[in-house]
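User: Just a sanity check before I run the rest of the batch. Below are the structure tokens for the first item. I only need the designed sequence back.
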């Protein structure tokens, strides 16, 4: 195991919540916070490959403007945030992880970036992503062990937050590109409901799958950014709903460390008074992988039709497979119906048990930078359109982080975050 180095002692070690509080109180400046983040990036990014675009002078200029403001712009006033490079930014290149768009400058921000700016965030730079967010790695290294992968697609955002380069970063998930890298890197990862965060300005949008999310080092930071960009506030007392332990049909694929993490979390929650019960998914989930595959390929091929028509040779092998797929409209409609049926069945189950615990990944990050780490424990939930959260709760046999995944129903994002706050506190204290 080769960790990059120890946790820092500078201002970049602050959580987003603490940083926002201290900037608002005048205890620190945004410029000093951003400076420490930039120093960390300068020290470690060559090894990790977390950032694809960074303009230090521009980042500091943003910070100074916030420091000179007579009013707080919003809850994230002066807090630096990383933006995945599939999300449009008017003032920075947005290349979607592809040479096809080398130097591309959109004319306006994506909706989520605009919301971050409105909340006062400093957009520090663009984090590394795979070509059009496909699941083919580009060599981003895990800060906990630089010989291991940080995951795929949103791996740059995950590595940046895990290495204290920035307290917050956003990502997107089509299969598992928020939950999986967050779990691999020992982070809290939040994937919103399908339309829980405005998806306008995502490259090559797969309308049934592509979902926004955030990476942070604590659930409190997810609460902060969620409330800041949506204007929705978490319930004061969400109560203690029934919790289901959902091993899924993939349980045998989980490594012992992932199985143990789930079982121990369930036991601890039961021990403090939660009504924890075993849950079996409806039979529609036994074959849910096929609808996911059909929908992903069909929508992806249509969303990037021009790129496939004119630049197929510049696509990676995964993208070429999508571009050459031949699913018919009938196949797509059958898959959509199957997904709808599964969502309906899951919705009935969640009425009585609104929170599920399930593995975040099969286990630890593999010791291979080129490994295509399949998001099998995430894809079904992405297809269900509800929010999910991964919490870092354990470590595997190689000392790498292992998470558990919290699942809630469509639109229940506030409940998910509120429950995750309490669950994390319980698991850390018991």
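Assistant: Here's the designed sequence for the first item:
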């Amino acid at each position: 195991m080769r960790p990059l180095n120890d946790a820092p002692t500078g201002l970049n070690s602050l959580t987003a919540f603490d940083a926002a509080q201290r900037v608002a109180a005048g205890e620190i400046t945004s410029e000093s916070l951003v400076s420490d983040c930039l120093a960390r990036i300068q020290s470690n990014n060559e090894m990790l490959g977390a950032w694809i675009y960074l303009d230090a002078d521009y980042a500091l200029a943003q910070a100074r403007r916030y420091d000179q403001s007579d009013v707080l712009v919003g809850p994230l006033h002066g807090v630096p945030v990383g933006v995945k490079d599939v999300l449009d930014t008017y003032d920075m290149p947005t290349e979607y992880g592809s040479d096809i768009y080398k130097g591309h400058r959109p004319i306006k921000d994506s909706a989520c970036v605009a919301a971050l700016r409105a909340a006062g965030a400093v957009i520090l730079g663009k984090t590394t992503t795979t070509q059009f967010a496909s699941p083919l790695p580009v060599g981003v290294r895990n800060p906990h062990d630089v010989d291991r992968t940080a995951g795929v697609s949103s791996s740059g955002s995950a590595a940046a937050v895990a290495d204290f380069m920035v307290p917050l970063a956003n990502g997107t998930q089509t299969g598992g590109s928020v939950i999986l890298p967050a779990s691999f890197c020992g982070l809290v990862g939040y994937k919103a409901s399908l339309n829980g965060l405005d998806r306008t300005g995502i490259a090559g949008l797969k309308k049934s799958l592509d979902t926004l999310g955030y990476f942070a080092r604590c659930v409190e930071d997810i609460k902060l950014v969620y409330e800041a960009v949506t204007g929705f506030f978490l319930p004061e007392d969400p109560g203690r709903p029934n919790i289901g332990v959902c091993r899924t049909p993939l349980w045998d694929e989980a490594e012992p460390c992932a199985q143990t993490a789930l079982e121990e979390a369930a036991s601890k929650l039961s021990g403090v008074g939660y009504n924890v019960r075993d849950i079996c998914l409806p039979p529609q989930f036994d074959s849910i992988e096929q609808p996911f595959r059909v929908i992903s390929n069909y929508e992806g091929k249509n969303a990037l039709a021009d790129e496939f028509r004119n630049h197929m040779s510049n696509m990676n092998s995964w993208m070429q497979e999508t571009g050459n797929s031949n699913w018919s409209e009938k196949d797509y409609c059958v898959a959509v119906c199957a997904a709808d049926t599964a969502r309906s069945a899951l919705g009935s189950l969640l009425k009585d048990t609104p929170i599920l615990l399930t593995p975040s990944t099969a286990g630890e990050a593999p010791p291979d930078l080129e490994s295509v780490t399949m998001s099998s424990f995430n894809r079904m939930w992405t297809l269900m359109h509800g929010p999910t959260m991964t919490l870092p709760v354990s470590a595997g046999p190689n000392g790498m982080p292992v998470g558990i995944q919290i699942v809630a129903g469509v639109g229940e994002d506030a409940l998910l975050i509120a429950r995750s706050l309490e669950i994390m506190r319980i698991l850390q204290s018991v």
